Batch of 4 targets.
Target 1
Amino acid sequence: MISTYLKPLAEVDEARADHLAFVAELEEAGYSVTAGRIDPPTGGIILLDVDTEAEARELIAKDPYVRRGLASYTATGWHPARGALAGYQRVRKD
């Protein structure tokens, strides 16, 4: 999921602690593989381990950034074929 901030960075940062707690919950549940802010800070990326775009959208709808109208997300599918994530194995706690 690739986010784009919809409000000024200062306003986004006011909700950052809540957003990071949300990302930590995704990590704990095994949904988030990695996440981080885009540089320059105009949004971010959360690499989710899900089966469908609908599942990704359902999860991301709970992001405080989305709930507060601070960011929108675009879904982009990806299958790692090379590098550190090639052969990635799901660790989700279903």
Target 2
Amino acid sequence: MKLNTFAMIRDLARPKDMLFSCALMQRMLPSYQLFSEASEFGDPQIAQNVLDLIWEWCATPKNKFNATVQAEKVEEIIPDIANFDSFGVYPALDYCMALSCALQAFNQEHEQPAVTIAKLSQGSVEAYILATAEQELTSQEIKEHPLMVFEIETQMSLLSYCRDNKMTKDLVTQLKADLIRQNPSNLGLEVTEK
């Protein structure tokens, strides 16, 4: 029997589940950055810095940081969907929820952050497909949409990469650099460097 994606993600042990989570969040980050710039809400720098701390922890798990303090920073940049009428608020909120979820794992408040973050990333993609579709789509059409196909394939390839490689500082640094170089977000959006 072939395990589904989420079951395989659930099998990732710490710290590999956190590395997988970082990879997904790196792809979700541009959505927050674009929303923040367009709406002049929040702080893309905090959104980036907190994720960078988790990347650093993956590279050197001896590097401790105060997850509670970081969670409070994230709390301050979470958009309230009631205050915005642009679609961008939804993927921005998903990113903040993913970041909060990862931080909760450091305080033993969340056992399966990687599964939740994978679902949030897929949910962002699905919402974007629905928001940009010209007609109603069936669940099968959503699954077959190129963006969703790419999202699932990317999650599977990141999952294999995290599962099959020994976690070293170089591996973590390389994965982060590759994701930043590829740039497009999980929604296929690109953030241009200022």
Target 3
Amino acid sequence: MMRLDFEAFDQDLEGGWRILGSTPGCEAETADLIHKFRTMKVDGQRLSLMHHEMQLRGAAGQYGAAADLARDVLGFALSPEMQAYHEAELAFFARDYDGLLAARSRLAALPAPEGFKKGVEHFLANYPDQPPPVWPVNLDVVEGLIACFEKPYSEAYSFACRPDPQAETAAP
């Protein structure tokens, strides 16, 4: 059922959640399914769209609207790394340099999740020509926002403002 689109999941009387919900003894499981669909699929899609709208408003120079959307994004249950990343974006749009530095510190201090190192090793074994995943995610983006804080978001977000990943691996 998680593969269904919203309309089919919610409105299809013969193939959506209602068929399971009308089965005696399946009420709790159906409630769990609805919760999972709502939070993982619908909210996840809404969060993604809000985040991308926020970034585009920032790129258009609409920092007030971007900051408002960033506050809305922060209202979702986020993983600690995404919480810190979105706090950094909000600080950039709100023109709060100290807040941006604080969010960067929180993000950088997060321990890698269990199994991350093993996952990187697996990735490198399968994709030796690709840059490996790094922890914490989006730290390079936040560092770019700091490095180019006085520049427009579209430039601060660009790779030109981010640290050079080759410089980090090439250092003795």
Target 4
Amino acid sequence: MEVRFATIRLLINVLMLLVTVVEYSDSQTYYSGFPQVVPNRQQFFQSEPIMISCEGLNGLIGWRVMKKTKGDVRTCAPLWKTSTGPCNIINAYPSTDSGEYWCEYEEKQKSNSVNITVSDLESHVILESPVYPVIEGENMALHCRKKDSNSNYMAKFYKNGISIGSSSSGNIMIPTVSKSDEGLYKCSIADAGESPESWLNIKGELYLCVLNNR
């Protein structure tokens, strides 16, 4: 009987160790189910370059970057035959490049999607916020960026239209985020204008970004 109990305890310990290893592995590949966006932010000024890549997702090569703009779904590249590999947008434009992006592999697997907003030429302010969901408990930094300016300036930040603070450096830190921090964020700079709004997703620590099989 004692041998049986010892065996059961050993099996339980092994199972607990396996769960720990799996959770650690998942945390290391948290963003593996998303397209890679460079720079890592949701908003861009018109004519800025953007690179979106899917290579290596699920250990596969040959993904296509797909996008949905104004209800129209197509490959990020102009032609389907040459649309595998990274999608390089050299001069981003609001009407053609603002939208939802994801990865597809042979029309069988689909990644999670990200949203990108390209402002028009008249806009002089964007909010730099993470393009991927933020994990609960992490610190989150937001940057209010003024077009063609590298100096510090006073910026105001808003969540769901309500002021959440201001900063003379253009940056604000939200420590230890929780689900309550999820919402629409924007910023403004005096004499420069207001940024578009971007939705910020907050996910739990055990949230896994996995690919969807069709």
